[in-house]
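Justification of computing resources. Each target in the renewal requires a structure prediction run like the one illustrated here; the chain below, 191 residues long, is used simply to show the kind of job we budget for.
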Amino acid sequence: KLYGEGIEIGEGVARRDPSDRENLHTLSSLYLASAREDRDLPAALGKARKGVALVERLKAADPGNELWADDLPSSYSTLSSILGMSDKQDEALEEARKAVRIRESMVASHPDNARYRRFLMIAYSKVADTFNQGSNADSLEYLRKALALAEALTAADPADLHSLLDLGMALWKTANAMPGQDRGSAVAMLR
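Resulting structure tokens:
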């Protein structure tokens, strides 16, 4: 209910001043948060699409703004999740890949930024999860990319609890996705 009220207020402000980027950013966040919480999948999908459209609009209006650049792949990921729950796997995969392309570009521009590298690792894992609905070989390719990033992040800061947890999850997911004939390798990986 609160998201709905916030969206209504944000839409009113947007009608009065469509150039108010701060309001549009807040409105996009409300649409995407509401979409993540909504169990009515068609309604959630509509909200996610509206949130993505607003973030795309913000990014197009101010391409150098790093906040919009960071929000865009997150919004694609949210849309991907809802598409996946709606049994629209091809569309879900395309949205997840959009997030990866942006995250890869961000890491290429800022290779030492651990936060960007972690978000790229998560984006790879998201694509793998989406592929896991069909092709395990494609899923494994992205899981290995995620694992390589998790290992690099842990090596850079072995005391970072988030990196260690990410590494554990990446190891588990990669080992779990390995074909039956590679189970010995999977078990060794986990040790």
